[in-house]
Amino acid sequence: MRFLERERATLAKLLPDLDPALREMPMMELERPGSPGIRLFRDSGGPGLLVPEIHQGRGATALDALRVQRAIGSRSPSLAVATTMHHFSMATLVGLGGLGDGLEWMLIEGVASTNRIIASGFAEGRSGAGILDPSMTATVTEDGIRINGVKRPCSLARSMDVLTASVTIPREDGQGEELAVALVPAESDGLSVSGFWSSAFLAGAESEQVTLTDVLVPPELVLRTATTSGERLDELQTAGLIWFQMLMTGSYLGAASALVERVLLNDRIPEHDRVRLFLETEAAMATAEGVARRVDAGDLGESALAQALFVRYGVQDAIARVVPRSVELLGGLNFMTSDEVGHLAACANGLSLHPPSRSRMTGPFSAYLADRPLAVA
Question: A Gene Ontology molecular-function term (predicted)?
Fold first, then answer.
């Protein structure tokens, strides 16, 4: 099977209109602010990728989703990174569907059937915070809850239909507090989007600042968990972090693969150089697929999270080797006559910037290797 053929075949099976549409657009058009990429993703049915078919989604497995993200990343790194945040939010809501009373599935089905884009206001970007640890404050009123807070950067900020946010609110029985997930419509009074991302790299991901000022969320859009942090929800946080690491790994490996593909298609480059790049890139993908297969087997515990992190850092190292070698082999003429090579090289290294950083995980990994529980710094 040819390089990226399996990934693009998976994308064609699940979202048949997306890859042809992306191929027709110049890459740098997809990477600019105001990129049409997110609209193409929406029009292709992408928002329902991880939603079970019984709930009007595409029913993708974790392995499918990983391959889809790599395929998209090879066309537009910005779109892959942005849609990873949507899929991460959807995976969290699907997980909540297993904890709740059925309302969650109605909302999930609504997202899939109408192709709504969900942005993440979860705390995945805060050092030392769990995926669903509250990053915003909430006050309960007769009409629902009022939320205040800021999320930056927030991918999909300008195209989102809904923002997910975790909050702590009083339990309905009056016995302490519980965690809840609020679904905040983008058109809500008090929700505003302002500029934050000033870099030219990944500019098409719409990673801006979202501010909530006294935003009212009605009760039907507040998903209570009946748990507090440290209880059963920890399982959901672990699962969410596994999905986050896995899909981000696939997305950035896609950006690196776009460079490798250019090398493989250039028969003027020596065979041994081409084969070496091919082997290292495919080996990196194989390790990520191992994580996806564990997710599909329902293995979402601490060991799977450790593997997801090990793999993510290992892929970072592989990217750090194959990207500069690809640029070197493509030569100065390619670099000087097109923005694409330099852009892809810069974007592919973005995986190292996502939490948790390897340096902060050194202590927790050392403790884990000594048979202590895995902590995420």
Answer: acyl-CoA dehydrogenase activity
Q: Angle at the Cα of 346 (from 345 to 351), degrees rounded to 5? A: 100
- The sign one gets for the Cα dihedral 30, 41, 349, 323 is negative
Where is average pLDDT lowest: 13-27, 64-78, 233-247, 279-293? 233-247
Q: Which domains does the chain have, with CATH numbers?
A: 5-114 (1.10.540), 118-224 (2.40.110.10), 233-369 (1.20.140.10)
Q: What is the CA radius of gyration of the chain?
A: 20
Predicted structure pTM score: 0.93
Nearest to 38 by CA among 248, 174, 204: 204
Helix or strand run (H / E) with residue 120: strand 118-120
- The 10s digit of each residue's pLDDT in 260-279 is 999 999 999 999 999 999 99
Tell me the pLDDT tens digit for each residue of 289-314: 999 999 999 999 999 999 999 999 99
List phi, psi (to 5°) of 182.
-100, 135
3 state SS of 233: helix
By DSSP bridging, strand 118-120 and strand 137-141 are unpaired
- What are the residue ranges of helices labelled H in the chain? 5-14, 18-24, 27-30, 37-43, 62-75, 77-97, 103-114, 233-264, 271-296, 302-337, 339-348, 358-369
Locate all alpha helices (DSSP H) within 98-156, ordered by sequence: 103-114
Say which residues have a Cβ less than 8 Å from residue 315's Cβ, sequence separation at least 6.
249, 252, 253, 284, 287, 288, 351
208: left (phi over 0), alpha (psi -120 to 50) or beta: beta
Q: Which of 127, 125, 123, 124 has its CA nearest to residue 136?
A: 123
Spatial CB neighbours of 92, under 8 Å, sequence gap ≥ 6: 122, 131, 132, 164, 181, 236, 240, 243
Structural contact between residues 281 and 322, judged by C-beta atoms closer than 8 angstroms: yes
